[in-house]
Amino acid sequence: MTERRPHPVVRTLVDAVRGALIGFAEIVPGVSGGTIALIVGVYDALIDGAGHLARGVARAIGDGVRGRGFARAADHFRSVRWAVVLPIGIGMLAAIVIGAALLAPLLEAYPTGTKAVFAGLIAASLIVPIRMVGGRWSVREIGIGLLAAALTFFLTGLPQAPDVDPILPVVALAAAFAVCALVLPGVSGSYLLLTVGMYAPTLAAVNDRNFGYLGVFILGALIGLGLFVSVLQWLLSTHRRITLVVMTGLMLGSLRALWPWQTEEGGVLPVGDDLPLVLLLVVIGASIVLVIMAIEAALLKRRMLSPEVPTDPEPDPQHEAEHSVEDELEATANDRPERD
Asked: What global pTM score does this model have?
């Protein structure tokens, strides 16, 4: 009996919806796109895809300058699960454009209710990394998780800077740090931009189609992603359990940024008279996560969706070995003294 494979169209549409959910999350300060990627089951695919892309670009530049061709770069590009990454990327971009026009004004008009919904979403999503850790947590792991939560709680309590008109190098630098939120659950790129006064200018650039600003922002994000993702991949491959413990703590601490009652500068206020409504909205947010997880489980059970694959295939070792030999021969030739 042959195994039933997911229909390509269904899989593509589902991945596009996954990407849209991640993109919407990136618009909301306090919500991490990495958290949503965990919830919808594409976190490992995105991390590995980003790693291969970053290394492929680095190989293309390095080998291209040395005149060695692009074989090693092509190996990395082929290792990206494009059938998953492309629909997710398209869904993300579409959601960011739509969310900048719709979700951001909603957050400004109804800050308490909107934050309550997302607080419930993040609280319920803690199930995902806890389940990924698996087994019983040791006292040491609980302590590390609480330390990570305390760190995020402190960072999200930093005062928000007034809006600035940044120069392009600053835009690139801010994007390099903010993009870490895309791959690190619990850290919000939007909130990082808020703390340096660049959230509103970046949102305006999206709405106004300021392609110069957006191009520099994307370039900075790609550089930051390339530098950070390799470290995160190494942590997930060699210290996966404790890394997931830290991620859980980061997500827990990020709830401070989504406390419904806050001042315009992000200061925490006491519970308001609208507590019953806020609790209802928190439950709605948590229910959204549970429904998403239930739908994904049902699709997996009916073979309409592929299970998550933890890692992408490695590049062709033959090309890597061939070029390693070339590197050694070139180094030997360079070290050889010249004859008179």
From this structure: 0.68
